[in-house]
Design goal:
- The protein is an all-alpha fold.
- It contains ten helices and no strands.
- Helix 5 runs antiparallel to helix 6 and helix 9 packs antiparallel against helix 10.
Length: 202
């Protein structure tokens, strides 16, 4: 099933135009990591973790929108993606409360810090960060793709900024919040992040 068909299965045939636009956004040429491949991986993991979510379809919708706006030179991509979700979903038959939940979840991906009782947020954040717990080769490809997206940033500044992000991740008590993702990804993720930090500082 291609991505647009997957959207239609979730949101209904009358919303195909939304799925088509989102698919095009994830295919923008400046993207190297935040691509259709990333979206597919997040959607697949949301499906795996759906039993933990209070409203799995709201999480799926949020996954579609979470990187819909992506400009590496800007710091407000999550906020702009959330606004896009609010605008595009207002034209559907989704209940306003569910649209609000989708918008909240997209905004949450700016911090990846869901509350202890926020089951929807935990699933989305875990799915989005699962790449951190990938095998070392896949993680290295992810790190290289992120560097390509920030090709306009000189090495010295990129290394400092990236190290700040990685140290922030290591400082979190837990990177993953659902039991299944924590068991599967927490330890390899910390190993990958520490390895990348070591290479950045080499």
């Amino acid at each position: 099933m291609d991505l647009v068909d997957r959207w239609v299965a979730l949101a209904g045939p009358h919303t195909r135009h939304i799925g088509t636009e989102l698919d095009e956004r994830y295919g923008e040429p400046h993207r190297r990591y935040h691509t259709r491949t990333h979206l597919t991986a997040v959607l697949d993991l949301v499906d795996e973790l759906a039993g933990h979510a209070a409203d799995p379809d709201a999480v799926r919708l949020a996954a579609w929108f979470h990187d819909a706006v992506y400009a590496p030179e800007r710091a407000d991509n999550e906020e702009r993606s959330a606004r896009l979700a609010a605008r595009m979903l207002a034209d559907t038959d989704l209940a306003p409360a569910r649209v609000e939940e989708v918008v909240r979840l997209v905004e949450l991906t700016a911090t990846h810090a869901p509350d202890g009782d926020d089951r929807n947020g935990q699933v989305l954040c875990d799915a989005d960060l699962a790449i951190l717990g990938a095998d070392p080769e896949t993680y290295a490809a992810y790190a290289a793709a992120v560097r390509e997206e920030y090709a306009f940033v000189p090495d010295e500044f990129f290394r400092a900024g990236r190290a700040e992000v990685l140290n922030g991740l290591l400082a979190l008590p837990e990177l993953f919040h659902t039991p299944a993702a924590r068991e599967r990804f927490e330890e390899p993720a910390r190993n990958n992040v520490r390895t990348e930090l070591m290479l950045l500082n080499a």
